[in-house]
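Work Package 4 report. The design task specified in the project plan requires that, given a folded chain encoded as structure tokens, an amino acid be chosen for each position. We show below one input record used in the internal validation round.
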């Protein structure tokens, strides 16, 4: 009986390796298609795809005009997902996102309510300039991002599967922006900072996007295949040292846990969701880079996108010109020893 059990385990491992190798090939093709349209920005593409492969949502932060919207529409095409886009504005109402009930009247004059679905009922929701809407409207996304359903007039409506929110946000210094509530920020698996392109990438952008025609990406996988890859990522083994490194890093970012720099500079730190995000994203990043198991390098690379939107600095640290990124970089240096 004991031998049979061992055989099953070995078979399972073989099956996972075979499935992972097939997923590696698909992910490599996805990367190639995205690269046809998005030049440079390798870290941005990697982190956004890692968030989707992990089954989560991503917040893309950067000034306008850096191809954030284009990246999301490209991912919709390449991953074969039904994509909807909502432009967030100060006058946007929750019903503009979720949908609303309208009254119908039949030929006998009987009236009844019918639910008309809003744009949230898509597999890939692009929430464009999410921080331009009021907090009330932003919070309409909260339940859907966590529970994958919404409730209207006491009735539950399930969202399609898979369901991913890729939100873009302008830097808070810009006019007409509201900061996102902490509870909502925590729902995003990763915060991806979108910077200006490198010189060579910008040269490519100029040459390739100002002619008569632009390259268009092809669909590589579909929603069912994406769900398979997401399930596979949750089955990938994570070594004990990597688990310990995740716990040590997340806990070192919380004040009152023995880290002197954190106690001095951090007002509040990341909760357990940060560790969960790190655990999933490390597996997805390994697969994205062609490896079958996550390493300590994955943890160090993911520290900033996983932690930066889940912690806040003290007033004194901000007054000294310190940023959350500086604090995280210090914690990673300590972790590397």
């Amino acid at each position: 009986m004991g031998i049979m059990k061992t055989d099953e385990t070995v078979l399972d491992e073989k099956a996972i390796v075979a499935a992972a190798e097939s997923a590696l090939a698909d992910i490599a093709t996805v990367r190639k298609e995205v690269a046809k349209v998005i030049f440079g920005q390798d870290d941005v593409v990697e982190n956004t795809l890692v968030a989707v492969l992990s089954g989560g949502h991503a917040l893309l932060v950067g000034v306008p005009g850096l191809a954030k919207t284009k990246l999301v529409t490209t991912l919709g095409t390449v991953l074969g997902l039904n994509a909807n886009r909502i432009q967030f504005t100060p006058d946007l109402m929750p019903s503009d996102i979720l949908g609303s009930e309208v009254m119908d009247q039949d030929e006998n004059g009987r009236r009844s309510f019918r639910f008309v679905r809003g744009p949230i009922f898509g597999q890939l929701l692009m929430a464009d300039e999410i921080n331009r809407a009021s907090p009330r409207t932003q919070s309409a996304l909260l339940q859907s991002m966590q529970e994958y359903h919404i409730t209207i007039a006491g009735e539950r409506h399930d969202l399609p599967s898979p369901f991913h929110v890729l939100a873009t946000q302008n830097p808070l210094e810009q006019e007409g922006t509201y900061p996102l509530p902490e509870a909502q920020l925590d729902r995003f698996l990763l915060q991806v900072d979108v910077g200006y392109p490198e010189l060579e990438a910008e040269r490519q952008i100029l040459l390739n996007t100002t002619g008569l025609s632009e390259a268009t990406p092809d669909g590589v996988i579909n929603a069912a295949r994406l769900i398979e890859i997401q399930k596979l990522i949750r089955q990938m083994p994570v070594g004990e040292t990597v688990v310990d490194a995740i716990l040590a890093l997340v806990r070192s970012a919380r004040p009152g846990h023995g880290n002197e720099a954190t106690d001095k500079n951090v007002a509040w730190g990341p909760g357990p969701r940060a560790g969960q995000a790190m655990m999933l994203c490390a597996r997805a990043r390994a697969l994205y880079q062609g490896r079958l198991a996550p390493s300590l390098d994955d943890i160090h690379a993911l520290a900033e996108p996983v932690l930066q939107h889940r912690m806040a600095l003290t007033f004194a640290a901000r007054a000294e010109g310190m940023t959350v990124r500086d604090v995280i970089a210090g914690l990673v240096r300590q972790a590397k020893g």
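The domain at 237-337 is CATH 1.10.8.80 (Helicase, Ruva Protein; domain 3). Validation will be extended to a larger panel in the next phase.
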